[in-house]
Amino acid sequence: MNGTFGLRNIELSYGARRVLAGLDLDLLPGRCILLCGDNGAGKSSLLRVLAGLQPADRITVTGPEIPSPRRVARLLRDRTTYLHQHPYAFRGTVERNVAYALPRGGERVGRQARVEEALSWAGLDHLAKDDATRLSGGERQRLALARARLRPSPFLLLDEPTANLDGPSRSRTLELLHTFLEEGRGLVVATHDPAHFAPVCDIHLRLEGGRLRLAPPVSPPLDRAVEAG
After folding, report:
1. Each residue of 73-92: pLDDT tens digit?
2. Domain 5-90+153-228 falls in which CATH fold?
3. DSSP 120-181
4. Are 101 and 152 in contact (CB under 8 A)?
5. I need a surface site. Which of 52, 107, 141, 181 has the fewest CB within 10 A?
6. Is residue 49 within 8 Å of residue 204, measured between CB atoms?
7. Which SS3 state, helix, strand or coil, does residue 93 take?
8. Where are the domains of the chain?
9. What are 153-209's pLDDT values in tens digits?
């Protein structure tokens, strides 16, 4: 399946609480969708459903070949990569953490070259042999993005990717996200601060009452807008 990845009638409830009320969403190659909403609106739940990590009560995949319900979760996991708000670092070196994203097997030299390219892309090559559990928040975010770059999935789902990062780390993260878009990969970014994603945002959606609605265009932070002017 290539191009737009259409998902329809997404429903999810936690007990008597309906979190996602039959909403529709198209994931678009090379486009960034910002997903906003109040705390508890269901943004993280929606991302986990899209990633195939949270079973939905109902979800339909559009396209010429509609998979059976049993295959939907597998298809979602193949088509998407989910990046948690607090990226996990396994014990071991940064280099080894990035290598986890590659399938087992294959020629060793080729695998190593891909890992080194991903580390360089993320600006982590100088930390390749360091303990990954000792990385800063910004470095862990770039580690997660480096792992995502080695996965073949065409869509990335990011939950608050710049939360608690300082200015330079936030800017570097945005640069890496822009690279994904240039390469044709689609993004869905859940955030409480859409202004910081103005440089990469194509579509701004708000989750309210279990449904998505189109939100106003995103403007950059005031300080950045003043600098640009």
Report:
1. 899 999 999 999 999 999 99
2. Rossmann fold (3.40.50)
3. HHTT-GGGTTSBGGG--HHHHHHHHHHHHHHS--SEEEEESTTTT--HHHHHHHHHHHHHHH
4. no
5. 107
6. no
7. strand
8. 5-90+153-228
9. 999 999 999 988 999 999 999 999 999 999 999 999 999 999 999 999 999 999 999
